[in-house]
Amino acid sequence: MAKPRSVLVTGASGMLGAAVVDELLMSTTDQVHALSHMRPLRIHNPRVTAHRFDLAQTQDVHRVLSKLDIDCVIHCAALTKLETCEADFELAVRVNAIGTREIIKAALARNQAVKFVYISTDAVYPDGPEPKPESLAPHPASAYGISKLWGEEAALFSSTDALVFRTTIIGPDENQFLGWILQTALAKKELSLFQDVVFSPISVRLAAKLIRESLDKNLAGIFNLGSGDSCTKAQFADLVLAQLGLSCPRRYVSLGSLSTRVERSHNMALNCSRLAARLGAVPSIAETVNDALNQLEKA
Questions:
Q1: Sign of CA dihedral 233, 259, 16, 142
Q2: What is the pLDDT of residue 37?
Q3: pLDDT, tens digit (0-9, with 9 covering 90-100), for 275-293
């Protein structure tokens, strides 16, 4: 029988955090401390203890964590809105970098052997023609990517046992790409889709499953967490709509047509072969779409 773990999940009311908590509860032993900020926790289980704190407030972080005995932190909470990070870089750093550092400090003050798992982003990589391996030197173009890279560095500096995932996660939340596709298509409005932006998405549930498996195997270091292949944003949307039998007006555009102050990459594809070699496989884009839509039907 696996040794019981006490796991702290930040951002537990968010899309990924909630999926990670659900995945941990599939074990018969793990006890979960679920941390959230603005949104109420949607998970009700006797093995889950809910807490509230503001990641941007250092005293709040230490107040909560000083009372907890935990073996592992899975840090999903972040400021992810690109435009907000660009408009208020100080806030992005306070949440994504300094907040990460303070969580680590508070956790290590209670348990020097705590395992820290940090959910990062593909936005730390530079643009380029090929799927990005973990060995590629980071060069983020956006304020969001910079703040997340600094969070990575805090995690990796804390321990040789730290685990970092660089990922692009899709799910039904309306502020996510899949959620936006569904909302727009159901409203019969026009979708403007990039035909020159490539990525390697993974569904939120499959991402949570691979995070839990990586924790079980005690992986450490940096891993790309995504699909084993890649496609354009337009191809992804076409696949989703075909699977659902939905139709709506579509306009295929280039990244250069977007009027925004946020610097974006044309190629966000990830080389996930390192994680696949350690866990046996990572899903394809077709599998991640099927999983995301199956979860949507169950919701």
A1: positive
A2: 81
A3: 999 999 999 999 999 999 9
Whichever domain contains 70, its CATH number is 3.40.50.720
- Predicted local confidence at residue 46, as pLDDT: 85
pLDDT digits (tens, 9 = 90+) for 10-37: 999 889 999 999 999 987 678 999 998 8
Q: Which residues of 137-149 are buried (b: 16+ CB within 10 A; e: fewer)?
A: ebebbbbbbbbbb
Q: Who's near 194: CB < 8 A, 6+ residues apart? A: 232, 233, 234, 252, 253, 254, 255, 258
Q: Is 182 among the domain residues?
A: no
Cα torsion angle, 104, 45, 31, 18, sign = negative
Q: What is the CA radius of gyration of the chain?
A: 19
Residue range 64-118, pLDDT digits in tens: 888 888 999 999 999 999 999 999 999 999 999 999 999 999 999 888 889 999 9
Q: How many CA atoms lie within 13 A of 78 on its CB side?
A: 25
Which tokens belong to 202? 């993974």
Total structural domains within the chain: 1
Query: Residue 7 corresponds to which amino acid?
Result: V
Residue 137 included in any domain: yes
Domain residues for 43?
Answer: 6-171+201-226
